[in-house]
Design brief:
155 residues; alpha/beta; five-stranded parallel β-sheet; 55% helix; 14% strand; globular; disordered C terminus
């Protein structure tokens, strides 16, 4: 109930304890894409916020003060209300095994910090387009077949 309103309030939730990282992403997405970015400073807050506000996209730092980002992803996926919200990891951890692990857990993408602004914009555009397409397809019915292949990508 009231999901239409929730989406207009929060496009992107960024779970990040570092205020400088948050400010730069908020500015970038706000100025280049007119997206409203809200912040949660730890994993617990992020999960609670995602449940109440249903953001279109979650950006996730891994080194949070309370729980690790990988746990945040697992907790989000357990809840029907948040399981379908795409998560993109933004992390300073460039270890290939860590990146692989997060993608296997269900992260839609993984960007290492410091990232290029254009790289983040490209990822955000792609993820939001995919989500919009699947939602549009479900609502209209007639477009559903067009978007079906994208939904069946191996994860």
């Amino acid at each position: 109930a009231g999901h239409a309103h929730a989406n207009s309030e929060c496009d992107v939730l960024y779970i990040e304890d570092d205020s400088i990282s948050f400010a730069s992403v908020k500015l970038l997405l706000g100025s280049q894409r007119k997206l409203k970015v809200l912040r949660a400073i730890n994993g617990e807050n992020g999960i609670a916020f995602a449940q109440t506000h249903a953001p279109r996209l979650i950006l996730l730092d891994l080194d949070l003060p309370d729980i690790h980002g990988s746990e945040v992803i697992q907790l989000l996926q357990k809840e029907p209300a948040t399981a379908r919200i795409p998560v993109v990891v933004l992390s300073g951890d460039t270890t290939p095994s860590q990146i692989e692990r997060l993608l296997v857990l269900g992260a839609r993408n993984y960007l290492t910090k410091p990232f290029q602004p254009q790289a983040l914009l490209a990822v955000v555009d792609t993820v939001l387009e995919e989500t919009a397409c699947s939602i549009a397809g479900l609502q209209t019915g007639e477009h559903a077949s067009q978007f079906a292949p994208a939904q069946n990508k191996p994860r």
